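ugh ok so i messed up the first submission bc i forgot one of the chains. this is the corrected input, ALL of the components this time, i swear. 1696 residues overall. if the numbers dont match what u have on ur side tell me asap before i send this to the collaborators (the ones from the other lab, u know who)
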Amino acid sequence: MIKTITDDLAIVLAGEAGQGLQSIESILAQLLKVSGYNFFSASEFMSRVRGGANSTEIRVSAKRAAGFLDRIDILIPLHKESIAHLKKRITPETIVIGEEDKIGYPGMIDIQFTRMATELGGAVYANTVAAGFICGLLKIAEQECANFILEYFSRKSEEIRSRNLAAIKKGYAAGKGLSGIHISMGKNAAVKTDLLLSGSDAISLGALAGGCDYVCGYPMSPSTGVLEKMASYAKKFAIVVEQVEDEIGVVNMALGAWYAGARALVTTSGGGFALMCEGISLCGMIESPLVLHLAQRPGPATGLPTRTEQGDLDMVLHAGHGDFPRIILAPGTLAEGFALTQMAFNLSAKYQVPVFILTDQFFVDSRTNTPAFNAGDFKVEKHIVKTEKDYKRFSLTDNGISPRGIPGYGSGNVCVDSDEHDEDGRITEDLDLRVRMVDKRLKKFAAIGPAIIPPRLVGDGNFRTLVVCWGSTFNTVCEAVAALGEKDIAVLHFSWLFPFPDQAGAYLRKAANRIIVENNSSAQLARLIRQATGVAIERQVLKYNGLPFAVEEVQREIRKFI
Amino acid sequence: MIKTITDDLAIVLAGEAGQGLQSIESILAQLLKVSGYNFFSASEFMSRVRGGANSTEIRVSAKRAAGFLDRIDILIPLHKESIAHLKKRITPETIVIGEEDKIGYPGMIDIQFTRMATELGGAVYANTVAAGFICGLLKIAEQECANFILEYFSRKSEEIRSRNLAAIKKGYAAGKGLSGIHISMGKNAAVKTDLLLSGSDAISLGALAGGCDYVCGYPMSPSTGVLEKMASYAKKFAIVVEQVEDEIGVVNMALGAWYAGARALVTTSGGGFALMCEGISLCGMIESPLVLHLAQRPGPATGLPTRTEQGDLDMVLHAGHGDFPRIILAPGTLAEGFALTQMAFNLSAKYQVPVFILTDQFFVDSRTNTPAFNAGDFKVEKHIVKTEKDYKRFSLTDNGISPRGIPGYGSGNVCVDSDEHDEDGRITEDLDLRVRMVDKRLKKFAAIGPAIIPPRLVGDGNFRTLVVCWGSTFNTVCEAVAALGEKDIAVLHFSWLFPFPDQAGAYLRKAANRIIVENNSSAQLARLIRQATGVAIERQVLKYNGLPFAVEEVQREIRKFI
Amino acid sequence: MENIFDFKDKIDIAWCPGCGNHAIRQALLAALEELHLGREKVVLVSGIGQAAKMPHYIRTSFFNGLHGRGLPAATAIKACNPELTVIAVGGDGDMYGEGGNHFLHASRRNPDITLFVHDNMVYGLTKGQAAPTSRPGMETPVQVFGVFEKPLNPMALAISLDVPFVARVFCGDVGQTKEVMKKAMAHKGFALVDIFQPCLSFNKVNTFKWFKDNTAYLPDDHDPSDRAGAFKKSLEEEPFPLGILYESDRRSTFEENLEVYKKDRSPLYQREVDMKMVEAEIMAKR
Amino acid sequence: MENIFDFKDKIDIAWCPGCGNHAIRQALLAALEELHLGREKVVLVSGIGQAAKMPHYIRTSFFNGLHGRGLPAATAIKACNPELTVIAVGGDGDMYGEGGNHFLHASRRNPDITLFVHDNMVYGLTKGQAAPTSRPGMETPVQVFGVFEKPLNPMALAISLDVPFVARVFCGDVGQTKEVMKKAMAHKGFALVDIFQPCLSFNKVNTFKWFKDNTAYLPDDHDPSDRAGAFKKSLEEEPFPLGILYESDRRSTFEENLEVYKKDRSPLYQREVDMKMVEAEIMAKR
Ligand SMILES: Cc1ncc(C[n+]2csc(CCOP(=O)(O)OP(=O)(O)O)c2C)c(N)n1
Ligand SMILES: Cc1ncc(C[n+]2csc(CCOP(=O)(O)OP(=O)(O)O)c2C)c(N)n1
Ligand code: SF4
Ligand code: SF4
Ligand SMILES: [Mg+2]
Ligand SMILES: [Mg+2]
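and heres the new structure output, hopefully the right one now
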């Protein structure tokens, strides 16, 4: 029986940590894109450096598709445990390809990646063989593959280069020659000029375009990617990148940096953020800008360090003692990841409030192609003033925003204080002034109002059923809803969470049937919605096993409610 | 003109830090109570050790009354700045008594406390003279005063004792002899057997009765009182009291202590708590008990360190990353302060969740008489088991609660892990087990259900207007509402905030007119109510200048809404 | 005979094959056995990191808490039940980075606990960033220009804090590692053993060979009771001295200082509050 | 001539009359003036405590942040604008207690900032609990059985960390305090001055007289460049040595190590990102 795949192929690579799933993914990402295929990949892995059971989904499609699929069309297991690890996703439709003697899956197609590699000089080339095999299956131009491999290994020795070249060719031949699978997928030349980005890339490029010149952090999965990306830009873009002793130091250092005129980014995860709460409150009090990227993972505590969840919204909404304004963003796409991060710097500088960007492991570690965006469309807004002798950092203004000076720029002094203070920033016990200062800070809610990005409605404007989601689930939910093929259904996606977009109320009230989809166990956005609008969403699709939603799963769960 | 006071007298002592307002208050508290008067005091002071302008209100009444009054019947300023400091509260009705040459307030009654004291051997006795003066005014039995003073200074030298005795007498004579004020207030012998407690006392005694044997903290106003009270009990009750290097150490130490079988109390304030958020999340993950007293003060950041606010509810509701259950209590009276703290230890041990007790500076630093409570009514419930060899700390049970073992007690091992874990407490990447473990933890919400204390309705059961409040404002709000003298109004007070008491919904929906009274700037309870019930409370009486609500003020503000 | 602290069945250990942590585990298993400790009386306390996974691979009670926060928990556990043998274990990032303040102040308290720090000069679990003990020049994906901060010298630091047992070993020598572990556990008071441990996967500079080439056993005439002398010795680098640098019996322990054990030595969990006394305390407020 | 760092009008200083902090303020005002610094180029950074109120009483820019968290902010401020003179100031609780970890790691970074710690051996602002430097036996409302933890020795600690300027003064000697302050500020790199300061209100043990009686100036022949010798000296107590215990010029500063200043010395706030370069970086992702 020949399996024919025409427009959407889900390949899953599985193996243990250290077997190099990532390198196969990297090679394929580039090659598929230059060949005009849409590419999407997502990885799930254990918190260990060697061993265990991990997998990477690679989705190749004719049309843009960046939702995560449950379905596995082709499984390439690199170790025996892969089968048990993925048993729930393997169906009779799944074609398993690999080393039969090692994997022992009944009915699998035997391809001896390792043996082929050994013949070429070493087992280490098995990954390249496997990548070549998939290229062959997809009938990517062989020359393209060869060129790419030489480029990819260009910094390695001649020997390594030529062996990889031989490996990709050998794999290619095996893939191309395989009967039993027929892939004929439409290509799209436009894809070639797309960007190919991970979520970490999008956030990091957004930070560059936001004028970020100081990054501090403390390593913590899944936020470390952004820290390392920014470090890789450090030289070219003159960015100070500092790994601090702990997260408390991180946030206080970032506030010091903004105070001195830098545009600092913090990147962390839930546990690290929990340690910063006092610092967030300081940010609120001294009305400092601060841009903080929080890549969520399942909690509580250490939880599942390398997995995904949307469980930190509640904490971020209320982090820090006392009342003060903040902005919370949660990009749903790479383009939003870029644009919102860029904007975050300007928003933060303008309103002098902390701006949080909530992503998660699924978002930062996934990679897909996306139409190129233009940095030229974005501007760095510094919002700082040269001070005069009598400069007052906290001058009381109509909208609550005081012109922000920087020490050393101008002749004034810039004084900020974590105690309640007067316009000059000096400690006060004047309780009437205290009230004016609280009011000043809270007034910024009104000032921010016009900047708020309303939630995005995708689908039928005359919806009866509204599927509500936020952040990283955008692509998967939209794809699932589209696949339902129902007429009166739409998705409402929030990428701006707080201050809560009032526009949401009308949409929510209009819907006869409301369903929330959240990658956490308690429907945190649903609570925020009820708090802000009074609308309760009782139909909840929640997932909290550490994995992202799959398109089929969302489809199935929503179906139950319509 | 003679001013006659019959049933309620508000005396305010004012002066700078270091002038000993506290010692006058202490003497009066005892003497008034033993004389059969109801006593209430509340202090407001600046964050400094010397200087500034502080005041203490002392309320003497025939009927129990522990609301804070704006009104000042008698003002005793100990320094000139007192007048400016209290100018908003001084009215033509206010009788100002003190050293005219120093204070210079027109129409004041000149009593030369300092000169009298100096004549007796030193200005230091001026406080005792002033206390004696008030006793004289109130016509407390002179012998009672004399006896008390000897007792009060019993650990001091003979000279100091006799000089204070002379001082109290001299003051007494001056007070008794004063024409112009006639005080004839009903006494009540029952008061004599009352307890006389501050909020810190009530919390600390509750902790003793809860079986607390380990206290850790880091000094921070206004929570330090409880730390110091517990230290004063350390010897008699064999309590380990440890001042830790920082608040992160505090919470992790407390979790270690519970793990090893102790019953640990943490006491802190908002900024300290903000640093503990990661530890709170750990508590959620390892299902450890933890009792944490948070005495609130105005934020954000350092804010107004010695003043009062109810601004940390939001933070406590959502502290820590990830989802896990918690219990939040907020006593409204001293009796509740005692009982809820006692209960907190049992609740925490039983459900293995963190229990937070929210007070504030007004609550902990106020003092009043209250009917004696009986420790015999309370029992320490340990909820620990002796382990067997195959003991599993996180055994999956129907209600989510696993029997809690202690290392060294029994033959099993007790293993807890901040990562997601199996029943044995060992790290796992089994994602189905992850789901069961999340469900296990969240199931406790249901288990806790029956223990929830519904909000207390005070006033007309057939209310049309419902005044909603929480925590420390209870006495003031109830008194204000009673004073309105309206028929269809009631107070709904929450001392159990979370898990949110469902019973509240019916009360709230029944009300035609809902008013919330909160000592913060954003109506945090109102938000929680809307989130939990959908009911929005738009009529808000908020105060956030660092001072507690006054009865008259609440009355005035509520009047506007009815 | 089986080691009671080891598992009967093969367990899945998440460390990389060849990682120095395996040797440390062997040494610890042997040390625990040779000290004849009861399995139910030992508590391992750790934070988060590769080293901090140790408790999962030893059969004792354990408290595997937060990154950097092992010491406060360990201190409290020992304080609440001095009958327990409490061992804290963590990585160089865990104990000297995130947890640095607790190290400082645990040293001041001097609880009778033992601290093993797996010093691989790198953040292993998070895949290769610099640790406080990383050597200058080491390039990582975060330290792209090479480490330039001065590495923490845990030996000098501990001696400055008068930690009463300060030692360093290299896990390549399992025998010495075990022996020093035993001495550290036997020592009454806070005992630090900094264990040089190669991280195969992320530290390509400080390899097994590097540690071997850059360490030297303390000379026999080293006097561990001489604090100033030990300090001077602790400043030596490449080779780094191995062995017990400093040992002192002058300090009383945290638990010894706790008033609650002055008359009654029973652990806290065995005690009951006397409600009559609470009652009396309440009534004293009349 | 007026001191430009002082206020023209009388200001309300919240410290108790007679508190040692007033003398420290006088010394600091004089030191700032004598160094001829520009008022707009000086930034004081502090945490919370009595000592940490200092910035409010000096006319410079300041960042009065959180208890214990002065150093990370100060480090960043200097790193973002090396033209500024950055001085961190705090109490013994602030800097050695809550902020201990930042002290450890600021020492490793070696930013060119000066740290003044007002060491009154007590928590002043919170009314008299023990500080990390409190002497054993001191009773307080929390330490009811007396302090038994070993006091932190900031001098020994700093020397163990190779802080390149380590000094102690007593504010009773305003002259020496000022002189050492000036040297500390002039020193390129992280400079610690631990300032003995009596707290009249809450430390009844370590009074002005006690400090006077229990301190001794370093002998003229003290060699501050000898680290091991300085360490040995730093262990001396009652009398505690006063003066510059240790000074070294071997370490490069944090800012010197920052790549961003290797070609361009301008502070970060003056720079602009080149959007064309960002564009190119985006396009490189094609
Ligand atoms: C608060 C917090 N920050 C960061 C992390 C992420 N994290 C886990 S282990 C680790 C460091 C590991 O290095 P080390 O302590 O040296 O242990 P090793 O893995 O090298 O044994 C970090 C940063 C965390 N778990 N918690
Ligand atoms: C996180 C946090 N914990 C506690 C406090 C309360 N607090 C304010 S100052 C202080 C200690 C003061 O002692 P020290 O630092 O020695 O300064 P001093 O007042 O003696 O000059 C404390 C504990 C705080 N502000 N923030
Ligand atoms: S990453 Fe390094 S420290 Fe961690 S297990 Fe592997 S070799 Fe060992
Ligand atoms: S309390 Fe002590 S340190 Fe604080 S101002 Fe008063 S004397 Fe100085
Ligand atoms: Mg390490
Ligand atoms: Mg101090």
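quick check: Residues 158-177 of chain B form the longest helix (20 residues). that seems consistent at least. The longest strand of chain B covers residues 51-61.
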